[in-house]
User: Fold these one by one.
Assistant:
Number 1:
Amino acid sequence: MKQVFKRPRSLADIPFHYCPGCHHGVIHRLVAECIDSYGVQKRTIGVASVGCSVFLYDYFNVDVLEAPHGRAAAAATGVKRACPDHFVFTYQGDGDLAAIGTAEIVHAANRGERITVVFVNNAVFGMTGGQMAPTTMLEQQTTTTPFGREARVNGYPLRMAELMAGLTGTSFVARCAVDTPKNLMRAKRYLRKAFEVQLEDRGFGFVEFLSACPTNWKMTPKQATEHVSRTMIPYYPLGVFKEENA
Amino acid sequence: MVETTVFCEIKNVAAGMATIKLRRERCKGCGLCIAVCPKGAIALGTRINRNGYPTVILSDKGSCTGCAICAEMCPDVAILVYK
Amino acid sequence: MARSRMLLVKGNEAIAMGAIEAGCRFYFGYPITPQNDIPEYMSRHLPEAGGTFIQAESEIASINMLLGAAATGARAMTSSSSPGISLKQEGISYLCGSQIPGVIVNMSRSGPGLGGISPSQGDYFQATRGGGHGDYRTIVLAPHSVQECYDLTMRAFDLADRYRNPVLILGDALLGQMKEPLLPGKHRVRDAVKEWALTGANGRKPRRLKSLYLNDGELTKHNWMLYRKYRRMHKEIRFETVSVEDAKLVVVAFGSVARILKNAVAMARDKGMAVGLFRPITLYPFPSAALGEIAGRVKRFMALELSTGQMVEDLRLAVGTEGVDFYGRPPGSIPSPDELYREIRKVYRKRIG
């Protein structure tokens, strides 16, 4: 018998600190698989953000820079401009990218920076204990929307992929999920394209991953994954929102 | 009892069939693998690892086709697949 | 001296020129009065030198782009003025925590808040106390002429690399906008390999640059290590003295105030007053020891600042609270040598005789 599934080389062999059923682990692995697949491990520089994934530098066998909360896209701009031949990616949650980091992500995209952005959307601020995020759904209870999110008070959940697709500087924008095996395979394909637009010097690549947060949604891992399927996907449709051809 | 083996070994599997190995100390008992196995061959076992998590086992060894969907869905890269 | 090589330039331009000469190849900035000559000069000349200029979407984005470029080992700079520097504080704290070098230029304007655009020295605390969060310091260099704008900027890059720390240049609107002859020099960039830089894990273990230390005792150790580095920075103290050897009253000032004072002190000397000038060039580390030495021989000190009094606190820490007078001029008008001479004379008559 031969091994048909193994840990990617770019993923460090240490236990993840993420909660049981959190999709960060899956998404980390998918990114590492892509780094291996394109053979860029030795010239990859990752930019970590602030959130549950703040320890990203422990999990990837690549050089990583810690950026202040919300600023990964600006830091990645500096990295890529200084090292245009390197593969540069950011990995950001919904607080980091869609709240405090909206200016930086919009402008990095608008400039068509040759970076790949992995955006993990779990509709809540995970690390800080479950507060509302810009992507929190209406009526969703969080620690700062204890009676459920109301549009009048807190506005509407932000659809980042759609927003990014409207910017001329972006080359590939998609949203996916890892809630089902079928969606996971689709996610892999989208991630590959987001890598390719950078590797082929075509432009800015952006993939939004819908993700489960069992702990802060107060659900079991199975329920949380089903919540992605049943409640998040209808509001945050999966698919490619922008794809520029080579 | 101190857990010394890391893997859940599957023995006596007929040639041509597939199997999985679980890194028990990485498993968090999240059960996502159980939910997606097309053969329903994975179940929650009785052993609790050092982190206090219940861990899964390949309960129906004969059914495993090596599709690796469990491994793909596992957030902890705790499952290795052999065919 | 080749006078034909002399250029007539603004202080702002001299800073940009010095940066390029020192090997700066990345500039990220955002427009704000009174320092726009810096990004404008960079936008034209940095690409010519093979560098990259980005007008960023904000001062916050700029400092973070600097973080990214400098993390790969490049010499990078950003510039702004007072409120824009306030925005950069978090980024500066991260640069210090992760030990990433960089040069940040503050051509001060008036505050607080939107304030005004006239020169001020009200950012002294912000600059020297580590204006952001956490226990950190940056070297602060205070030029007082266009030539110093050029020379000190070059020095700033060397110091930043030597100590793996951001260095702040503290100028003001007057310095930035005034034009003076500049003799550009040649700078030898020592291309030392940066063993900590992120260049891709090719044939080596992956590196990370971070400031987060959560394990028990780690951050304590890290902070003491930074503290010891800041102590070592005291080697870089610089100051200028004029006629202090036989002075009875020593006026202490930095930047453009020191510049105006050179005339005022000459006027005082003309009238027979034994006045000298002490001009700190490094505001952090502050030349306390040198001031302490003079304190034994001198009767009185007088601090003069374009503020309600910030540097005077460091002066009092250095020489004692008893022997220090202060003349403050919060921003909104620039004092003439005459006015400063009259303030010096007031103090001299009252304290010396």
Note: Chain C has a mean pLDDT of 96.
Number 2:
Amino acid sequence: MTQDDFVRLQTLLASRAGFRLSRERIHLAAHRLGPVARREGFDTVDAMLAALWSKPVASLAWAVIEALLNPETWFRRDRGPFDTFARELLPAIGRVRPDGLVRVWSAGCSTGQEAWSLAMGALEAGANVEIHATDLCQRAVDKARLGVFTGFEIQRGLSAASMLRWFEPVEDQWMARRELAQAVRFSRANLLDEPVDGPRFDIIFCRNVLSDMEPVRRGAVIDALERRLVDDGCLILGADERLDGDTVAFRAVNGRQGLFVKAAAVLSRAA
Amino acid sequence: MDARTCLIVDDSRIIRKVARRIVEGLGFEVDEAGDGVEALTYCASVMPEIILLDWNMPVMDGLTFLRRLRAQPGGERPKVLFCTIETHPERIAEALSAGADDYVMKPFDGEILSSKLTEVGAV
């Protein structure tokens, strides 16, 4: 892979996914694209990229983009947000909704560990929830929906008691039990796309997504999240993520790391 | 503040060595025992904060050790993580009901162990 290839990849990721492919990831990029080249029938990564630059086919471009996104996730990552969700947010919001129904969106769900963790927490709390999870990467969404995890994946962040309660062994992997599997709907979505109008969400988890994005794209994504969130809803970002300077749509909640609510300015505009 | 202590109970020297490296990396002071009897003797003199426990060992297996430990004065205090190759749900449930705080299926890595220790409140 040449420097020129990498610069073109950076442009591709930024324009289609808003993803910031930083320079130190050049070796990782070459490594990740090897399997994509083989799958797509090319002898080498260089040959695949040459073909892509000369004739940009959407399916190949997306196969390349997907391989370069950051798929890092695990069950109950950072723990705190999941406890806040199950113990505080669900009861508080459920109390003021018809039938106690709380609508949740896991935006940028990768292989699904966050969405499944939310579903386990909600079911254990006896809450009435609809959980929708989306990711840009179709392969990640497919794996997430399957709900099957290796011994390494299932144990990262999940206690053995929770594992036994919500998953069953299939060969040497672990599969979500029917009751859990019914609790989450997965689909592919690009956060850069114009938000669709539909029922809005009460709680949006969008963790460790914005921090990987091109700074100039963050504002639009945050505004789109704001449009999909009810006025008294909550946005949960990653533990170290801030919104300073990106938007005036949200304000941080004191004492709750990563928890944001709509700012007064947005609410008065809506009114 | 005193260093936090961990006892690794496994009949395999290699497993003990691998686990020691991980747990020391998490800031624990580590001792080792090769079977349940050695581990009980150790705990009778000084109770560690966490115990990583293999199941199948000569002399006394992990489950027997765990039941005897929990029956001892102060034996309810250590956080015990079973670390074994057993992956049958019935066996995992048996270990948990015998008083294990969590259960780790081998093979495991530092991220798994670290997340399990966090989940039981030991880190």
Note: Residues 3-68 of chain A form a domain with the Chemotaxis Receptor Methyltransferase Cher; domain 1 fold (CATH 1.10.155.10).
